[in-house]
Structures are given as structure tokens and as C-alpha cells.
Amino acid sequence: TAMTNDKLILRPKIRKTVILAIVCLAFTIGGIYMSQEERLQGLFVAAFFGFGLLICLVQLLPGSAKLTLTNEGFIMTSLFRSHLIKWSDIEVFRIGYLGNNQVVMFDFTDEHKKYETGKLIAKSLTDSHAALPSNYGLDVTELFALLNEWKNKYS
């Protein structure tokens, strides 16, 4: 977590990503061994988990995953791709579940016209337009409070 004037950068904990990378590595190696007897199935397992391993390794690189709070909005960065969401485009934050994981979800204002199809699908599945991909090393309630604090301060 790094904070400067009107800017806060949060990064996810790397522990889960490292554990997932180890699991992917084990299954990749298992797929390679499996391919000696079941060629196609083994290569599929090795390729699938090898791709997962690659994604995990990229996520571990500095700057590949973070949440940046600014006076304009928040910037979600994943796999080095960044997306700004303005505070003025957010109607409400809430805490919800994606599977077994508690995450911060949010709805856009009625004036926000981007991603209409995606918002409809997400709303029907989760009762929210979108969700943050991580809690960025914070407890979900801490992240929820922090986002509301910044939204109230800058919108």
C-alpha cells in the first residue's frame, strides 16, 4: 500500500497467487507424465495448467495487479491492463459474494451508458453491475469503507 497526495495504491496479497502457481505447476508436470500413456489427455492437462501457471507468474510481476484510488475515480489494473471508473459513474458500493468469496460490488449510475449488456448479465447473476477482482490485501469491510470514503470525498 502506497499513498501520496490524493492517490492510494493497493496491491493484492501474493500468497494466494503463489499457492495457485504451485498447484498449476504440479498439474502441468502431472499432465506431462500423463501424456506418456494418454497422449491427448495428458497434453491437454499440461497445456491448460501451463497456461494457468503463466497467468499466475504474470500476476506476480510488479505493477501487473493493483487498485489505484485517485480524486477522479479508481483504476483497476489486472495483467497490466488498466481501467478507470469515475466516482461520478458509481451509484453505490455493496459487499456481496462471488462464489464463496466476499467482494466489493458496485452499481453504475443510470447516466452511465457503457457496458449495457455486461451490466444486465452481471445484475441478473449477482444483483450488481460489477465487482472488484480482489480485496487488495484488505478485509472486505475495510475496502468497502475506503471506497465509500473516497467516493464521498471526490464525487
Kindly list the characteristics that best describe this protein.
single chain, 155 residues, alpha+beta, 5-stranded antiparallel beta sheet
In short:
By secondary structure, the chain is of the alpha+beta class.
Give the rounded overall mean pLDDT.
92
Which assembly state applies to the chains in this document?
Answer: single chain
Radius of gyration: 19 Å
Number of strands: 8
What does this protein structure show overall?
By secondary structure, the chain is of the alpha+beta class. Helices cover 44% and strands 28% of the residues. It has helices spanning 15-34, 39-60, 116-126, 140-154, and strands spanning 2-4, 7-10, 65-70, 73-78, 81-86, 90-98, 101-108, 130-131. The strands form two sheets. A five-stranded antiparallel β-sheet has the order 1-2-3-4-5. Strands 6-7-8 form a three-stranded antiparallel β-sheet. A hairpin with a 2-residue loop joins strand 1 (2-4) and strand 2. Helix 1 (15-34) runs antiparallel to helix 2. The radius of gyration is 19 Å and the shape is elongated. It starts with a strand and ends with a helix.
Indicate the topology.
Blueprint: E1 2-4, E2 7-10, H1 15-34, H2 39-60, E3 65-70, E4 73-78, E5 81-86, E6 90-98, E7 101-108, H3 116-126, E8 130-131, H4 140-154
Antiparallel strand pairs: 1-2, 2-3, 3-4, 4-5, 6-7, 7-8
